[in-house]
Amino acid sequence: MALKFQVLASGSKGNAIYVASESTALLVDAGLSAKEVVRRMEGSDLSPRRLAAVLISHEHSDHIRGVGVLSRRFDLPVYLTQATLEGLPSQLGELAAAHIIQSGRTFSVGDLTVHPFALSHDAADPVGYLVEHNGCRLAICTDCGTVTQLVRARLQQCHGLILEANHDVHRLIHGPYAWHLKQRIRSRHGHLSNEECCDLLQEVNHRNLQVVVLAHLSEINNDPRLVRDTLGQKLRREQWHHVRFLIAAQDRTSPLCELNP
């Protein structure tokens, strides 16, 4: 009955998330090399041969680097929007199969129901994913420049959230990035800050929320300590005692999480 998930990697150097029921397993994004995805899965006692498909959020390299090799090696269909497919670089090679999806149109892979929803990011047609199984709901929302009403709606009543906390605003503004890059990150097509992430969490908290993973932290403009400090300052402890918080990392997998209805 449970829905399980594990963040294999999260950050600007590569993103990949494993999501599974007892009978169906998916990979959401494949931004590491195929070899590294397999290594991290096997290191967590997850078999890549269990995978039924790969879901791609958008065409940036830190989300698609290994998808071509993984698709061909394990004969995996890849689910992505038409604009994302057209934006894939030719060096990825052929996909075993490409299934075109649209934000707002639900589809199924095995016994997992997937609801793609539009995000605001500087990509061709970026989407987040809501994965549902037997009443359990996991939302994956990273690379999101602004919180729209649609995003708020999709994140309501979820049992698990993987949510972007990309940067600390002060560190970004006073950091080494060029001004145009700072403007891009802070724009509505960039990334959510720690503060914006916490504001969103306050809006979607409910008594059945079980796990929150803060993801896509910038190695230059953020730090797990800053994320924890912001959580402590903005979230009232007594309202969050029922929730397990994790901070995803670039160089190692996060713990395997299990959601129950």
Order of helices and strands: EEEHEHHEHEEEEEHEHHHEHEE
Radius of gyration based on Cα positions: 17 Å
β content, as a range? 25-35%
What summary fits the major beta sheet? 7 strands, mixed
Biggest sheet, spatial arrangement of strands: 6-5-4-3-2-1-14
Structural shape: globular
Averaged pLDDT: 97
| Helix/strand/pairing category | alpha/beta
Question: What gap, in angstroms, lies between the N and C termini?
Answer: 8 Å
Low-confidence segments = none
DSSP strand count: 14
Helicity level, as a percent range?
A: 25-40%
| DSSP summary: helix tally | 9
Brief summary of the model shown:
The chain is an alpha/beta fold and 261 residues long. 27% of the residues lie in helices and 27% in strands. α8 (194-204) crosses α9 (224-234).
Key terms for this structure?
7-stranded mixed beta sheet; globular; 261 residues; alpha/beta; single chain
Could you describe the 3D structure shown?
The protein is of the alpha/beta class and 261 residues long. The protein is built from 9 helices and 14 strands. It has a 7-stranded mixed sheet. The protein has a 7-stranded mixed sheet with strand order 7-8-9-10-11-12-13. It is globular, with a radius of gyration of 17 Å. The termini are close together.
